[in-house]
Amino acid sequence: MKPPAFQLYAADFYMDVSGWTNEEVGTYFRLLMHSWVNGPLPNDMGELSRITQSSAKKFTNKWQKLSIKFTLNGDGKYINTRLEQTREEQANYRESLSEAGKKGAKKRWGKGGDLNNHPNNHPNGKNIALQSSSSSSIETKEKISKKKRAFIPPTLSEVIAFFKENGYTQEGATEAYKYYAENDWKDGQDKQVLNWKQKMRGNQFYDSRKAEGKESWRPSEAIKRAAVKQQ
């Protein structure tokens, strides 16, 4: 069954499209929604313009900016890496719930979770009341919910694209990437990075790395507070 929804992290999305026009943001969002529901996007400008309800000429112009958000998969179709990571995380989470349920059933009823073979089953087919297992199932769900979302390190190309979007150089992006990659994506306090984009904005957007003719990106106090809460 295809998952009907996914989490949209407002701060991440807002920062990703900072400086974009409303039309560009809307087009990008349509592509994301279509990909989530229908899978990888076709490698065809005509089809993509139809999906976004844009004219071919307008879409081609917008695609120059939008294309950095997508990459071709092994089948030659476009995917958004972050979106597919979210899809995989959801699948893994559902699988973990399923496995937890199977283990719980096996523990309660024996091999295979067959109620008919359980010794507490009434000989006339009526089940004898058993102690509720609601408390144990709640504990299992709480343990699963407390697991932190696994951090997936970005690729160098993703970091470079992110720096360029915000007016910084490829050289600066490469230096920042090497710094974190060589430290197993841990910060200066030896803590695991949870949101690499926030780390880059807070610690790696130096004026010396600014592309010529671009203004430095500086987060507002509200965005800083939101970033701290997510970490």
Structure overview:
The chain is 54% helix and 2% strand. With 231 residues, it is mostly helical. It folds into 3 domains: 10-79, Arc Repressor Mutant, subunit A, CATH 1.10.10; 92-146; 156-230, no CATH class. It has a two-stranded antiparallel ribbon. A hairpin with a 5-residue loop joins strand 1 (71-72) and strand 2 (78-79). It starts with 9 loop residues before the first helix and ends with a helix. Residues 128-133 have low confidence and may be disordered.
Summarize the structure.
The chain is mostly helical and 231 residues long.
- The count of DSSP E runs of length 2 or more, i.e. the number of strands, is 2
Q: Provide the spatial order of strands within the biggest beta sheet.
A: 1-2
Poorly predicted parts = 128-133
Q: Give the proportion of residues in helices.
A: 40-55%
Number of domains: 3
Distance between the termini: 32 Å
Number of helices, counting only DSSP H or I runs of 4 residues or more: 10
Sheet-strand content, in percent, reads under 5%
